[in-house]
Amino acid sequence: MSGTPKIRLRGLTKRFNGKPVLDGVDLDVAAGEGMVILGGSGSGKSVTIKCILGLIRPDAGTVEIDGRDVLSMPRREREAVNDRIGMLFQNAALFDSLPVWENVCFKLLAQKRITRSRARDKAAEVLAQVGLAPSVGDLSPAELSGGMQKRVGLARAIAAEPDIIFFDEPTTGLDPIMGAVIDGLIVDVVQRLGATAVSITHDMASARRIGTTAAMLHKGSIIWTGPAASLGETGNPMVDQFARGEREGPIQMELRR
Ligand SMILES: Nc1ncnc2c1ncn2[C@@H]1O[C@H](COP(=O)(O)OP(=O)(O)OP(=O)(O)O)[C@@H](O)[C@H]1O
């Protein structure tokens, strides 16, 4: 990797109740890369992302964003870093009490970076980027289908034009066609912003579509990184078993022990 990575994790360690979840995670994400983190349920994918976002403090290790150690930063500086980060949550996590347009511009409004009337226009602009009509802005999230909620969640993730975006299982709960549509939108918006994307997914078709690079988390560390397009044919028996969803293989054998 040439130049400073956008995100650099070194020796990230986290235990919960004495049980190691992260046990020395090393990972570099280059600027503009689409990194997909794979791993079994409970392998620590969300904990890794939460450590990067500052929602969980690791027991040891470093998190650098643009070459700066974000764990030792004063709170204000850390908040400024987080202002450059967008997040699409698994269940879209929209506020039902607010119309769609306020959801989309929630962060900009909360930080008083935009007036309410400008926010309505901004929301319409961003909704258009995810294929939604301006009239959707006046609906309540409860009135939307799952696919539309994901689009609104995506619009909210990009409204502040972040340079890093996290996607937590973006296609979970969607039919395969809608999943492909959301993936296509993700690729479009990430490219338009020139952003760095980090995604968690169990959906291998989605991983190949939205990822340029994939990393597999297993037993607390990254055991493989490589091109997302090679998933299933990486030559690493654990990664290939996982990507192909095969019952038999080295991972199953470890679980039986
Ligand atoms: N705040 C917490 N307190 C205690 N244990 C936690 C906490 N957060 C996560 N864990 C534990 O850490 C482990 C990893 O959780 P994590 O949510 O990162 O898994 P994951 O890889 O994202 O799984 P999934 O694919 O099922 O979402 C789990 O055993 C979980 O119970």
Main-sheet strand order equals: 6-7-8-3-9-10
Strand content: 15-25%
CATH architecture of the largest domain: 3-Layer(aba) Sandwich
Examine the coordinates and then state which fold CATH places here, giving the name of the CATH topology of the largest domain.
Rossmann fold
- Hetero ligands: adenosine-5'-triphosphate
The structural class is alpha/beta
Q: What radius of gyration results from the CA coordinates?
A: 19 Å
CATH superfamily of the largest domain: P-loop containing nucleotide triphosphate hydrolases
Number of helices: 10
Shape, principal axes of CA atoms: globular
InterPro entries: AAA+_ATPase (IPR003593), ABC_transporter-like_ATP-bd (IPR003439), ABC_transporter-like_CS (IPR017871), P-loop_NTPase (IPR027417)
Pfam families: ABC_tran (PF00005)
GO molecular function: ATP binding; ATP hydrolysis activity
Protein name: ATP-binding cassette domain-containing protein
Describe, in plain words, how this protein is organized in 3D.
The protein is an alpha/beta fold and 257 residues long. It has 2 domains: 7-84 and 163-256, 3-Layer(aba) Sandwich (Rossmann fold); 99-161. Helix content is 37%, strand content 24%. It contains 10 helices and 10 strands. The strands form 2 sheets. Strands 6-7-8-3-9-10 form a 6-stranded mixed sheet. Helix 5 (116-129) packs across helix 6 (146-158), helix 6 runs parallel beside helix 7 and helix 7 packs parallel to helix 8. The longest helix has 18 residues, at 176-193. Bound molecules: adenosine-5'-triphosphate (ATP). The site of adenosine-5'-triphosphate has 10 residues, from helix 1.
